[in-house]
Amino acid sequence: MQEPSKGWPRAETASEHAACHFCDSLQKVVSLEEGKDAHCSVCGGEMYENRKQSLQRTISFSLSALLLMVLVIIFPFLSLNRSGLKSSMTVWEAATSLWEQGDQMISVATAVFIVFLPSLLILSLLYVTIPLSLGKSLPGMVAIFRVVSMLKPWAMVEVFFLGALVSLLKLVKLADIAIGVGFWAFALLMISMVGALGSVNYFEYWDRIEAVRERMRKETFS
Amino acid sequence: MKKNAVPIALEENLAACHVCDRVQDVALHHCQRCGAKVHARKPESIQRCLALLAASIIAYIPANVFPIMEVTQLGDTESSTILSGVASFWRIKAYPIAITIFVASVLIPGLKLLALGVLCATAVGKVEMSPKRANHIYWLTELVGRWSMVDVFVVAILVGLVNFEGIMSITAGPAAVAFAVMVILTMLAAHAFDPKLVWDRMRKEAKV
Lengths: 222, 208
What we know:
The complex is a heterodimer. Chain A is an alpha+beta fold. Chain A has a domain at about 55-200. Helix content of chain A is about 55%, strand content about 10%. Chain A has seven helices and seven strands; from the N terminus they run E-E-E-E-H-E-E-H-H-H-H-E-H-H. Chain A has helices at about 55-75, 90-100, 105-135, 140-150, 155-170, 180-200, 200-220, and strands at about 15-20, 25-30, 35-40, 45-50, 80, 85-90, 175-180. Chain A is elongated, with a radius of gyration of 22 Å. Chain B folds into two domains: about 1-40; about 45-205, Butyryl-CoA Dehydrogenase, subunit A, domain 3 (Up-down Bundle), CATH 1.20.140. In chain B, helix 3 (about 95-125) packs across helix 4 (about 130-145). Chain B is about 55% helix and about 10% strand.
């Protein structure tokens, strides 16, 4: 039976056991209080976690990330001024200027890891999390969440930010640098992305998706 | 088998889905929850990991030997490799940044290649290591992999920003592509490795 105050909803067909990712030991799934995590009794590896207000946090961080992504694309990231010559670029232009100079591979990598994948992840998270928080399911939810689980390591917003800090230090000696709105938006985007993805415990999400779909199926048939 | 031992999914003919973690009968070809293919272990884990590893080692060499970017200033072109970039930061006493670049671009990729190689060797029984230590190494390898991309992004930013026709411009060097390829390949290699194989090996040896 499910306890509403503890853990998260699980489907009746949900597996009673979980297997450790590292050592494959079978462990009974227990309901956790918010903020607690479950570890494997054999190897100590973390199995799942009940993160605090996971759905609400994911939704709010994702919404702010979405807005910030728009700002990041529109506004200049950094501007340079070298004895009267000015140059400024947005994150998007970092990718396009590489393309124009013939470095298609790096251009595509930048665009994909910094703009496309993070945007896709945010939109997918919203598509899954908003209905989940309302106890509903939407078509394609499973496929979309599979994409989220698989693509998560490839969004590299925070790595790009570290790259931006290194670039700033390299540029200091060359010219006057101005930090643009896009830069600050990017810093906040990084925090929002980490917050949104960090609130998702995949074990919990898959359980919730399974439970919602089971309930919807029952409602349709009864 | 010992009494009170925790059952192993594989021995019960169960498998956790690689995508959604649902535990189910291995005989089911597709996961009952997310539809992904069900395998007890990642298929051809060691071969895939080693093949990707070999490819990343090949890319690691040009990534460190060739220039990662070329700075053209008033007709003079100066190219810099990753290591010469680290050295120039070191010379101007920007130690934290020199260390950051060195760790992210040279040390982490190198250690990661080594770590995955050792993990594969452990899984096939060529190297003795406690499985718990193998877990930690694997966990770290997966965690830090993406940070090596930092130098590629530095190049992307500098190329996009510094483009003063005829006076000064920065272009990407051949190492940038090699570097990006190397990071992507090592991430794929880490993903292909199945840490459960190390435990399988240990259990098999304990039984013999």
